[in-house]
């Protein structure tokens, strides 16, 4: 199965990786590896993680305080948000097109 980032989720990903890299050289690369490993886990068993709302699922990233919010579409996984767990819940809801 393939995956697609919502444009805002891709921007969150880039911003977070840059933030970590600026804090400590190499930490941005560590963050990227964790996110990529998390996405691989999601793609291997997308139904495994529980639904938060309707068909929106959340995978909690190890080592970093992030959750990957996604939906399972017909032919791909749509990553809606790379959400810092301290961020206001639900800020990403406008990204869902029904």
Helicity level: 25-40%
Instruction: State the CATH topology.
Output: YaeB-like fold
The N- to C-terminal Cα distance equals 22 Å
Report strand %. 25-35%
Global outline: globular
Secondary structure tally: strands: 5
Considering the chains and any ligands shown, give keywords for the structure.
98 residues, YaeB-like fold, 2 helices, 5 strands, globular
Structure description:
With 98 residues, the protein is α+β, with helices and mostly antiparallel strands. It has a single domain, classed as RelE-like (YaeB-like fold). It contains two helices and five strands. Helix 1 (7-23) runs antiparallel to helix 2. The protein is globular and about 40 Å long. 20% of the residues are buried.
Q: Quick gist of this model?
A:
The protein has two helices and five strands, in the order βααββββ.
Q: Helices and strands in order, then pairings?
A:
Layout: E1 2-5, H1 7-23, H2 27-44, E2 51-53, E3 56-60, E4 66-72, E5 76-84
Parallel strand pairs: 1-5
Antiparallel strand pairs: 2-3, 3-4, 4-5
Helix pairs in contact: 1-2
């Amino acid at each position: 199965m393939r995956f697609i980032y919502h444009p805002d989720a891709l921007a969150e990903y880039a911003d977070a990786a840059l933030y970590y890299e600026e804090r400590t050289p190499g930490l941005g690369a560590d963050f990227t590896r964790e996110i990529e490993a998390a996405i691989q886990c999601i793609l291997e068993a997308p139904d495994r993680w529980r639904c938060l709302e309707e068909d929106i699922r959340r995978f909690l990233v190890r080592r970093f305080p992030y959750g990957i919010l996604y939906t399972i579409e017909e032919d791909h996984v749509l990553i809606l948000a790379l959400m810092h767990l301290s961020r206001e819940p639900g800020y990403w809801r406008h990204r869902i097109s029904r």
